[in-house]
Write a structure and sequence with these properties.
Radius of gyration: 23 Å
Shape: elongated
Oligomer: single chain
Mean pLDDT: 81
Number of domains: 3
Length: about 210
């Protein structure tokens, strides 16, 4: 089955008098118009689902989140997730800014995070790149207890823990995913730093 009207129309062209050069162009333009109308009708249908804070079907949150490209974080309950979906417009309007990244990490259960740039850390290597940044968790804002400049955290055959201790591999994957999704498009995350004691950080690759 075709995913949209344009794809459906393209299938019909295989045995249609419209399959010539100009016929294909006309059908493609008409198909795009139909798909735009369908998208508008779909948005009009789903928009009221969040409108009444006292009567929101809970099973509507998942498809809404998928439509709005805002997935539900494991720590969120229904009310918290709905509150974040209510902010979809300002979230995507300001996406790519440090504050949205902080807000999303906080919502996912990473509170107290700070985004550090070369203006904050001018001597942090590599020096001279204005579009790099670091994700920094001050002491007391996280559960990481081990210092290791390794990527990930997993157990080898004899039970030895390799990587950061105090944070699960699933949480690390979620942390990286959020950073990649909401960071400024042209910025590079150099590393994720968990302060163990002042001046001592556990480092995680981006």
């Amino acid at each position: 089955m075709a995913a949209d009207y344009l794809a459906f129309a393209a299938q019909l062209l295989r045995s249609s008098p419209w399959r010539g050069k100009y016929g294909r162009r006309f059908v493609a333009a008409f198909g795009l118009l139909c798909d735009s109308l369908i998208d508008g009708a779909t948005q009009a249908l789903k928009a009221p689902w969040l409108g009444n804070p006292d009567d929101v079907p809970q099973d509507a949150l998942a498809p809404l989140g998928e439509e709005l490209l805002l997935e539900r974080y494991p720590v969120e309950d229904d009310a918290q997730y709905k509150a974040r979906l209510d902010l979809t417009w300002p979230t995507w309007q300001d996406a790519g800014g440090p504050q949205v990244l902080v807000d999303q990490l906080t919502a996912a259960g990473f509170p107290g995070v700070q985004i550090k740039t070369p203006l904050d850390w001018p001597t942090e290597p590599p020096v001279g790149y204005s579009t790099q940044f670091w994700v920094f968790f001050p002491e007391g804002t996280h559960t990481v207890t081990g210092v290791a400049p390794l990527v990930g955290s997993f157990v080898v055959g004899d039970g030895t823990i390799i990587g950061l201790s105090g944070i699960s591999f699933e949480r690390i994957l979620l942390l990286r995913k959020i950073i990649r999704k909401f960071k400024p498009g042209t910025w590079i995350c150099r590393s994720i730093l968990f302060e163990i004691t002042p001046g001592t950080n556990a480092t995680l690759g981006p």
